[in-house]
Amino acid sequence: MNISVSRSTSAAILSRLDTLAHLSESDDGLTRQYLSVEHRKANELVGSWMREAGMRVHQDAIGNIIGRYEGEHEGAPALLIGSHLDTVVMAGKYDGMLGVVTAIQCVQDLHNRGIQMPFAIEVIGFADEEGVRFQSTYLGSRAIAGTFRKELLEARDANGMTMADALRAFGLDPSQINTAAKRSEDVIAYLELHIEQGPVLESKGEPVGVVTAIAGATRRLVTLSGVAGHAGTVPMDHRQDALLAAAECSLAVEKVAAKRTHCVATVGRMEVSPGATNVIPGSVTFSIDIRADEDVKRTEALAELDPWLTKIAENRGCTLNVETVHEADSVACAPWIVRQIENAISTDKSRVVRLPSGAGHDAAAMADLTDVGMIFVRCAGGISHNPDETITEADAGTGADLLLQIIENFRVEDHSCSIEST
Ligand code: HGY
Ligand code: MN
Ligand code: MN
């Protein structure tokens, strides 16, 4: 790579990520949920950085924060570069935020040098990629891609508030979400820089890599309803214990994934009701997150799991309700963009690490709008979704160098929009 952002840039990236990490709903770790007070503060802070970098800033109808850096010709189609500003519970400070802050620093660098590209650049801080509050993911990117499902407005958070009411409380109008959608002719491509959240780059001793594809995923909410009862008086063979049914179901989830290569499944959330020591659980709701490198593996695993869950519920005298709250097929990154990222990493192809992403990313949703490409940056031990998530300042700088080089050398291929060449 022959362009290098100033050293101060990598320090500035890490310092800004530290500042963002303080915008959390809890004192003992980073949790920033969609449409929260912390989301609003993060949008205001990130919006101020975007303005400093010479961008026009607006918040769209679903709560994404977007900065636009005009190209040589006002109104030119844009290269979109983004990632998410929401987090999981007790998160690390790089997942999502690194991609947004790095993109802003690259535009700042262009602005400082008075450079405008033949295309516009739009940096997007997506409002909700993790799906923590309403259990469905990619809300911000789906709105921009024009694939937001209106029925999600009725989804409720842990306090019973619907997404629609949460949008109104945030000052947004749920009926206007469709205005966030972009026209494909106004977009030339989407790029995302993100921590790898896995061990591959570290194991190969490489700071960055190019993503080839993003794994498909299915998220479900399963509710088992048995009979609550007195822990002291109901004999073991008379119980309809929803928690034991859920425990058996969780082991079945593990088994259907473990028998398939590159297939993973997780029961990450479980709510037990009524949740008292001396009461047999009457009802349990738990989540299933299942992914695979090939969609057919995921659908086969789910097809094997469904009858198994039904059997377990029956045997334990529980009723079963299964709701699919998110479904996304695997997405291939566009070869013409993968090539440009590879060339920017090294002309020596043997040096370039190409890897699929087991994690989901907004790029998967943006692929419904335009061609996408992703850059991975090494993170220590591949640890993520964990306060111990970390990257080095040097790797933050390498990621920024790489993104800046791709932007400055970006060549639009096979695309519907017309860019007036310079
Ligand atoms: O769950 C994921 O893969 C991403 O972190 N949302
Ligand atoms: Mn994440
Ligand atoms: Mn992420």
Question: Can you give a write-up of this model?
Answer:
This protein is an alpha+beta fold and 422 residues long. It has two domains: 287 residues, Zn peptidases (Aminopeptidase, 3-Layer(aba) Sandwich); 113 residues, Alpha-Beta Plaits. Helices cover 32% and strands 22% of the residues. Strands 1, 2, 3, 4, 5, 6, 14, 15 and 16 form a nine-stranded mixed sheet that branches. Strands 7, 9, 10, 12 and 13 form a five-stranded antiparallel sheet that branches. A two-stranded antiparallel ribbon has the order 8-11. Helix 1 packs across helix 3 and helix 1 packs across helix 11. The longest helix is centred in the last third of the chain and has 21 residues. The radius of gyration is 23 Å and the shape is globular. The model has no long low-confidence stretch (mean pLDDT 95).
Helix and strand layout, with pairings?
Elements: H1 7-21, H2 37-52, E1 56-59, E2 65-69, E3 78-84, H3 97-112, E4 120-126, H4 139-145, H5 163-169, E5 187-195, H6 200-204, E6 208-214, E7 216-225, E8 229-230, H7 242-258, E9 263-266, E10 270-273, E11 279-280, E12 283-292, H8 295-315, E13 319-328, E14 331-332, H9 335-345, E15 354-357, H10 362-366, E16 372-377, H11 393-408
Parallel strand pairs: 3-4, 3-5, 5-16, 6-15
Antiparallel strand pairs: 1-2, 2-4, 6-14, 6-16, 7-12, 7-13, 8-11, 9-12, 10-12
Helix pairs in contact: 1-3, 1-11, 2-3, 3-11, 7-8, 9-11
Bound molecules: (2S)-amino(hydroxy)ethanoic acid and manganese (II) ion (2 copies).
(2S)-amino(hydroxy)ethanoic acid is lined by residues 129-130, 137, 359-360.
